[in-house]
Specification:
Strand content: 15-25%
Oligomer: single chain
CATH architecture of the largest domain: Alpha-Beta Horseshoe
Structural class: alpha/beta
Length: 332
């Protein structure tokens, strides 16, 4: 998770402006590709626009060049990130032509030899389009996975957060995504303890998580930042209550994760092996449902070379991992 946050921060911004200078800092067979810097959204709780400025999308050509270099190093999975990936291209000029958008970029990146998985992170629910949904469904290299931080589901709080969306729209997007791609894995993040969040509003959020059954979910307690518009509000929810609400959501999500993992038993999944642990004799990998560092893992009690795709039959499960047995190697 720290690696992702580092990429979203500004410490390596200079590398993105100078082709050929960016360093690969992942030890495994995945790499992050930051497609833009900054953010045009005005979420009340977020200080990124003040720190990083407005969005500056990279050109498709520069991203294709970097992806070619990444693939040449043997990287198998490309993870697209930015502060708001769905806003990609809005700021690009195209000499009178329609500016490229995120679905155009993904289709171009999919043509890169050697890259087998493309994963989409940080998709703002207000900007998810039918074109993006279709790209996930139609492009074989694009993982049936979407990280879509909803932050909350109560309409009053969404409005105060300046999220430019609503409870009804979020539900509609989720329904459309699952209809277009029935096996899509949805990850989200939510904030509890936002200023003036009542028990009823928190319960609405809890019920929403229970209803939707996200495949992966992270919970953050609201952090008061003076440089944000929410910083002008009184931080009315106590630290103790924030933690209590976070624990309630996480316990619920643990139950959901455990049940979803049980449903994987006896099914066969393609798994990308991230590492072999010689001391314990096990290999660790991930299915398309799992981003590295933040999601679940697959455990195999045998040696498999890192960077290899294998077909794995799931034989047992726990809350945040499943165990499988090797079915066969899939040609790289």
């Amino acid at each position: 998770f720290r690696s992702i946050l580092t990429h979203l921060g500004g410490t390596e911004a200079a590398h993105y402006a100078r082709p050929g200078r960016r360093l690969l800092d992942t030890k495994n067979y995945y790499s992050y590709l930051k497609i833009a810097e900054g953010c045009d959204n005005e979420c009340s709780f977020c200080a990124i626009p003040n720190m990083r400025g407005l969005q500056k999308s990279r050109s498709i050509d520069s991203l294709l060049e970097e992806t070619e270099r990444i693939a040449a190093k043997g990287i198998k999975e490309l993870i697209l990130i930015s502060q708001d990936l769905t806003m990609y291209g809005w700021d690009l000029k195209s000499n009178g032509k329609k500016a490229p958008r995120i679905h155009n970029l993904i289709r171009e990146l999919s043509l890169t030899d050697g890259i087998e998985w493309i994963r989409i992170m940080y998709a703002h629910p207000a900007h998810i389009t039918n074109d993006l949904s279709a790209t996930i469904s139609e492009q074989s290299k694009v993982c049936n996975y979407l990280d879509m931080p909803v932050q909350h589901i109560n309409d009053r709080i969404l409005k105060s957060m300046q999220r430019s969306t609503s409870s009804a729209k979020i539900r509609r997007i989720i329904s459309d995504l699952r209809q277009n791609t029935p096996d899509i894995a949805l990850r989200t993040s939510i904030i509890v303890g936002y200023p003036n969040e009542s028990e009823e509003e928190f319960q609405e959020l809890y019920d929403f998580v229970e209803e939707i059954r996200f495949d992966r979910l992270g919970v953050f307690t609201y952090s008061h930042e003076e440089t944000t518009s929410a910083g002008l509000m009184e931080d009315t929810v106590s630290k103790e209550l924030k933690l209590e609400r976070m624990d309630k959501i996480m316990l619920l999500q643990q139950e959901i994760s455990e049940q979803k993992n049980k449903e994987m038993i006896n099914e066969v999944y393609t798994v990308l092996i991230d590492e072999y642990k010689a001391d314990s004799g096990i290999s660790i990998g991930r299915t398309y449902k799992d981003a590295p560092e933040v999601d679940n893992i697959v455990v195999l009690k045998e040696k498999v070379e890192a960077g290899i795709f294998v077909d794995v039959k799931i034989i047992s499960s726990a809350v945040y991992e499943v165990t499988g047995e090797l079915s066969n190697y899939r040609p790289s």
